[in-house]
């Protein structure tokens, strides 16, 4: 029973890794996933999150056997 956590772009560089795995029983919301995986690092402002490749709010409930991904804000020009 686990949750796969992935980091993309500058978040991956900042954290020095691209993925983590958490026990699903230790988290309830997407924001809890960040805190559990990165207890020493505050979540940057405007981070985007996705569950199984669909964007979600940080207060979305997390279930077992999902992938939670974190992305820095996207800018274009």
In short:
By secondary structure, the chain is an alpha+beta fold. It has 2 helices and 5 strands; from the N terminus they run E-H-E-H-E-E-E. It has one domain (about 1-70): Beta-grasp domain (Ubiquitin-like (UB roll)).
Task: Give an overview of the whole structure.
This protein is α+β, with helices and mostly antiparallel strands. The chain has a single domain, classed as Ubiquitin-like (UB roll) (Roll), CATH 3.10.20.30. 18% of the residues lie in helices and 30% in strands. It contains two helices and five strands, in the order βαβαβββ. It has a five-stranded mixed β-sheet with strand order 2-1-5-3-4. A hairpin with a 2-residue loop joins β3 and β4 (54-56).
- Integer-rounded radius of gyration: 12 Å
What is CATH's topology name?
A: Ubiquitin-like (UB roll)
Helix content: 10-25%
Distance between the termini: 41 Å
> What's the arrangement of strands in the largest beta sheet?
2-1-5-3-4
Cα shape:
globular
Strand content: 25-35%
Q: How many β-strands, per DSSP? A: 5
What is the element string, with H for helices and E for strands?
EHEHEEE
Which key phrases capture this entry?
single chain; 77 residues; alpha+beta; Ubiquitin-like (UB roll); 5-stranded mixed sheet; 5 strands; 18% helix
Topology summary:
Blueprint lengths: L1 E6 L2 H6 L3 E5 L6 H8 L10 E4 L2 E3 L10 E5 L6
Parallel strand pairs: 1-5
Antiparallel strand pairs: 1-2, 3-4, 3-5
């Amino acid at each position: 029973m686990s949750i796969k956590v992935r980091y993309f772009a500058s978040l991956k560089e900042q954290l020095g890794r691209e993925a983590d795995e958490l026990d699903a029983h230790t988290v309830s919301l997407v924001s809890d996933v960040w805190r559990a995986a990165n207890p020493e690092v505050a979540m940057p402002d405007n981070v985007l999150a996705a569950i199984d490749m669909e964007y979600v709010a940080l207060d979305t409930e997390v279930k077992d056997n999902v992938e939670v991904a974190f992305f820095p804000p996207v800018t274009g020009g």
